[in-house]
Amino acid sequence: MTRKELIKQIKTKRSFLCIGLDSDINKIPKHLLAFEDPVFEFNKQIIDATKHLCVSYKINTAFYECRGLAGWRCLVNTFNYLPKDIFSIADAKRGDIGNTSSMYADAFFDKESSGLSFDSVTVAPYMGADSVKPFLKYSDKWVVLLALTSNESAKDFQFLESKSGFLFENVLVKSQEWANEENMMYVVGATKGKAFADIRKLAPNHFLLVPGIGAQGGSLRDVCQYGINKDCGLIVNSSRAIIYASNGEDFANAARNEAEKLQLEMAIEIEKIGF
Amino acid sequence: MTRKELIKQIKTKRSFLCIGLDSDINKIPKHLLAFEDPVFEFNKQIIDATKHLCVSYKINTAFYECRGLAGWRCLVNTFNYLPKDIFSIADAKRGDIGNTSSMYADAFFDKESSGLSFDSVTVAPYMGADSVKPFLKYSDKWVVLLALTSNESAKDFQFLESKSGFLFENVLVKSQEWANEENMMYVVGATKGKAFADIRKLAPNHFLLVPGIGAQGGSLRDVCQYGINKDCGLIVNSSRAIIYASNGEDFANAARNEAEKLQLEMAIEIEKIGF
């Protein structure tokens, strides 16, 4: 998906919501366990109920890998069920030496090779340029690079300060030598509040993928106040607060209601930037 | 596997060799394509030919994920074929927020959940303590944390210098608050030569997993000169130079010969430390 197509979708849907399909077989409603693949059934119903409210789905691969082969099959089936006009994110946080990152790129981008062809994949920056560049060889595919993550321990290394600023600032600056706002986004946690203002100085035009709303305590208001730009420039993710809104047979409706609450808040925010 | 068992294996086999099963369906001998799962057949024959010469096998997950479901099945079959007295490494370079890293830990350590139960998994440190700790909850399982990687672009971020030293030095020091030499190792690239001496000041007793011998240009001699400790403390990996030593029907023999060359060099090195 191109940047232009993504922005168009945001304008049309009045939303910049990403729904995280962090679907855990131990947390989904019990009546689904009667299905052959309970997690796939769960995802299907969540997608059907919410696809008009969001511009992106994010599949966190850990939740599928932990079930081994059955989980990987569910991941492929879920990917195939995603509406193709919605921005898909493989939240895989991969990254390895060049020839190996090429393999990871094939895993998430090359349908012929792996059965998967996500629009984007999250990548960890620790190993530097040659670990990221192989993901950038696919046209209309994106790298979503970890910059400032939403977790408490982000402070352990991401705030280490060198002459050229904090580590996450170095990641933001250095990575712009490898890619631009047409094929790279950054992960910035919603829990970081005012840090968004500093990040916008370093990456004014990039889209930011923002986890941490809801269960992790981040505020949509703060994120928009400091992080929105003229093209919106935000994809805000919510996982648990939406997909586990109810544990009963009404889970899909409950998920739609939660997604709609966020979409309505988002509509107000993008109204403000004249969309 | 415990540290004691690992050291015993090194003493018995006169080797600290790890063989990386970076098995690429496009690079394996063509006659294997007649098998139902060519990569599994390749791995099986490599394992049969080399298991007396190495103390560890490392499976880089990228090479399996890139083939989607078939690749993941091959990964599980290969894991099941590994001799259980040999130290197994899932070279997956995972790492995510706490509840997600728990899922990754299940994926690689919990056989009941995923079908896999490696002795260790490689983890990327960027997200800090809470992304690493979930992997440390399993007894006799190890985290192999990225510290100083073998690739050229390691310099992009790993050598950023703060008041508390280079980023990789911070990783070495900080992570010792989370784990000790009984359940954590570090990745240090063989291409880093004298950096091993500095690393040994910060982590004198830990095992180091050392990739970068062979195809990537690192020297076993340098690694041992600066990196070996009284318990050996090294697991040196070779992938391509061993598994692709021949492209013909003799590939397994050729792999054994290459592995044996390294094992003989290693026997000399561990003789020197009085093993």
TrEMBL record, chains A, B:
Pathway annotation: Pyrimidine metabolism; UMP biosynthesis via de novo pathway; UMP from orotate: step 2/2
Keywords in alphabetical order: Decarboxylase, Lyase, Pyrimidine biosynthesis
Domain of life: Bacteria
Domain annotation Orotidine 5'-phosphate decarboxylase: ranges: 16-255
Substrates-to-products reaction catalysed: orotidine 5'-phosphate + H(+) = UMP + CO2
Top enzyme category: lyase
Record bears the keyword Ribonucleoprotein: no
Gene3D superfamilies: Aldolase class I
EC number assigned by the record: 4.1.1.23
Keyword Lyase assigned: yes
InterPro entries: Aldolase_TIM, OMPdecase_type-2, OMPdeCOase_dom, RibuloseP-bd_barrel
An example Gene Ontology molecular-function term: orotidine-5'-phosphate decarboxylase activity
Family assignment from sequence similarity: Belongs to the OMP decarboxylase family. Type 2 subfamily.
NCBIfam families for the chain: pyrF_sub2 (TIGR02127)
PANTHER family listed in its UniProt record: OROTIDINE 5'-PHOSPHATE DECARBOXYLASE (PTHR43375:SF1)
Name recorded for this polypeptide: Orotidine-5'-phosphate decarboxylase
Native species: Pedobacter segetis
